[in-house]
Every structure is written in C-alpha cells, then in structure tokens.
Predict the structure.
Amino acid sequence: MRIAMIGTGYVGLVSGACFSEFGTEVVCVDKDSSKIERLHRNEIPIYEPGLDDLVARNVEAGRLSFTTDLKAAVKDADAVFIAVGTPTRRGGGHADLSYVYAAAREIAEAIEGYTVIVTKSTVPVGTGREVERVIRETRPDADFDVVSNPEFLREGSAIEDFMRPDRVVIGAETDRSREAMRQLYRALFLIETPIMFTSLETSELTKYAANTFLAMKITFINEIADLCEKVGANVHDVAKGIGLDGRIGKKFLHPGPGYGGSCFPKDTMALVQTAQDVGAPLRIIETVVDINAKRKRQMADRIIAFAGGDVAGKTIAVLGLTFKPNTDDMRDSPSLDIVPALQAAGATVRAFDPEGMHEAARLLPGVVYCKDAYEAMDGADVAALVTEWNQFRNLNLAKVKALLKEPALIDLRNVYSPQDMAAAGFRYESIGRPVKP
Ligand code: NAD
C-alpha cells in the first residue's frame, strides 16, 4: 500500500517513518518548504531520539520520501493521513480546525480511485463527519471513506510508542476502510496489539478522554503534593501507596510544576468546549484546566519566595525549559509562564536546556542562554530545576556550590533527595516532600 502523510511534524514524521519501517511506501508532505528541504538534506527538523536513524534507513530503502507537492503525493496514495496541527483557536478554548479542513479540500481535489482519508490529528467529535462533507462537496464523484485513527505517541519516546502501542483505536464504518486499516497495521496485529474498531465519534472522543484523564491524574497528584507540604507527608510514598492499587495504577503520579506541552493544555480546553457546546459540561476537567493554569504561575511565586521574596536585581539560574525531557518542544511549557514572571519581578534569568534553546530564544526574550547547567549557575543567587533532563540528575554539587552565590536549589521535579541535599550543605526545596522522611 501507499500512504501520503499530510503534515510532517512530531506526529506526521514519526508515523510516516514508522509506517515505512513496517514496509509501506510513504510520502510525507508539508507546506513548510524549509522543513522538506532539511529532510532532503537528511536533517531531522525536530529532536526525537532515534528518529534520524529510522528516517535515514527508510529513505535509503526507497520507502520514505518527502515533498511539498500534496497533489502528487495524494494522487497515487491508497490512504491519506491528515496529521496537521489542531492548536487552540484564538480567543477561546475550541480547537482550530482550519488546517484540517484546508488539507481535506486539497486532498479532495487530488484523490484518484478509492482512497481512505484518515484523521490522525487530534480532532473534536464531529470533525470526521465534517471532513467527509467537505470532501464530498469539493469532489462529488470521489470514491473514499473517512476514518479516525488518533495518535497516542509521546514525544521523547515516540518511536517505541508507535511501534509498540498499548492499543490502536480506529473509527471506521465500512468494510473496505476497516480492511485497509488492518493492512496498514498488519505489523501490530502480528504482535497482538489490541486494535479497536469503533465509530468515528467514539474514536475521536476516546483520544480526548485519554488525554484529559491523564491531565486530571497529574493535577490530582499535584494537589496532593501541596497538601503533603502542609501536613508533613511525603507525596512519593503517598503516590506509591495508592499506585500499587491496580485500580489506580502507578504511572502519572509524579508531582511537578503543572502539565504542559503541545497536547494536554489544548486538548483539555477543547474537550471542555465540546462538552459545554452540547450541554453536558465536564466540570471536573474545567477545574483541572483552571488549577493547572494557576499552578504554573504559582511556581514562579515559589521560586521568588525561595530566593528571599524579592528578586529585583537578583539572578536566577533556570535548568530546563522544555515541557519534558527528550524533546525540543516548547509549546505550553511551564517555563513560558515561570520565566517571564521572574523577569517581571526584576530578576535576571540565566538558562540552559539541552534541546529547547533555539525555540526558547524566540519565545523567551531577555534570557541569558548558556552553554550548560554550570554556566547558567555561575554567579546566580539561586537555581531552579524546571525540566528533569538526565544532564541535571547528577550535577557535581561541590561545583554547583562554588558557582552559586548561595548554595540554594529549588527542584520543581523532585530529582534530588532532600536528605542528600541537606547533607551537601544546600538550602533545598522540592514539591510535596518534607526534609525529614
Ligand atoms: P506539528 O505542528 O509538529 O506539525 C504539523 C505540521 O503540519 C506542520 O509542519 C505544518 O507545516 C503542517 N501542515 C499544516 N497544514 C498543512 C497542509 N495543508 N499541508 C501540508 N502540511 C501542513 O504538530 P504535531 O505535534 O505533529 O501534532 C499534529 C496533530 O497530532 C495535532 O492534532 C496534535 O494534537 C496531535 N498529536 C500530537 C502529539 C504530540 O506529541 N505532538 C501526540 C499525539 C497527537
């Protein structure tokens, strides 16, 4: 089979490369010509571990190619995946579907013969039906089915997530389209991945229900962490104590500065809007959205309090800027709230991030960007660990002590142990943990 992947971003490029690894011929399309030019030069436009080798191998084998010419790619394709962005619409929480519908119109003009059109982008319930209508309106003669196949991969472990997913959800309503999707995911059927076939609406909603549930779980443990601080309990032990219960599960119970990234913030808001629009409000998720937005700002206040309450004229070293390690993605990262709040309070921010600084420089002006964590901490009053990159897990504490004006570290990811830090002579604060066990 042949696939055209429309949108060569975090999801499109990884999915396209993985499908080609399964043996399918894939053409990845993007309207951003600089992205396609870089791919033609064998450069990967995003940071994702293992992606360079995967792409190079499949390009070499002649199964994976890149183009800006959507029509040529779509014309010969048996299946066309829409993997364009669905950011938050300006002035509200709805998803902006303009990229999806624009792609659908372009695809409609180009399809030849029976084609399965698959929405891989995260799209609100009803979008698949609308994509179908748009295509039918543009090309009344076209022979096609629309399928929903949301993507559950995580940045930083995207290839493994795509190749060995917990499940694949496919909203397909005709035998022909179900059969085509079975063929495309043959490699996963062989390793007995649970593959669910549902209606379009069920598939679309499953993706949002998954993301909002995970956002809720993070928010829950963040609030429990705050409570732990007030009552002298240890949030990690509480998390373990509840997580060992199979009904709760161990994952996603790590406290921090609030969820960020390109999915949870926008998807929680979009589902809140969908639910309000149809008169079935999700009050629990409305509250999650509100708590998380406030939490990011509270983190800046915590850092300021840690630095003595007044940071005017002080320097704060920020370690990590991306919303999580192993990605260069800065979208909705907590640092985008924290750093400007520190600057607004009069602080100078010196920062280092292993992969995010190129994008951060665009989004966070006035920051002194450094070549490593030690340079960021050189002469700073206090240090704040914001993203748990491996590089920050084993800092040379004697060196850190010598570089900082005062040995003081606030750790928003609980990377260090309070006891070890006290023993090393640091003033140390983390989330939801007492200094004594
Ligand atoms: P992205 O911004 O990295 O990539 C989208 C790409 O689509 C861009 O390169 C853009 O230039 C291109 N594009 C837009 N319109 C186009 C058109 N008409 N023709 C060709 N190219 C076009 O976005 P992403 O992070 O890959 O996310 C894509 C979708 O997948 C979103 O709906 C997102 O919610 C969902 N998703 C993302 C992740 C993630 O971790 N990033 C995980 C699961 C699902």
DSSP finds 18 helices and 14 strands in the chain. The chain has two domains: 2-198, 295-429. The pocket of nicotinamide-adenine-dinucleotide is lined by residues 6-12, 29-32, 35, 70, 83-86, 99, 102-103, 106, 121-122, 151, 153, 155, 262-263 (CB under 6 Å).
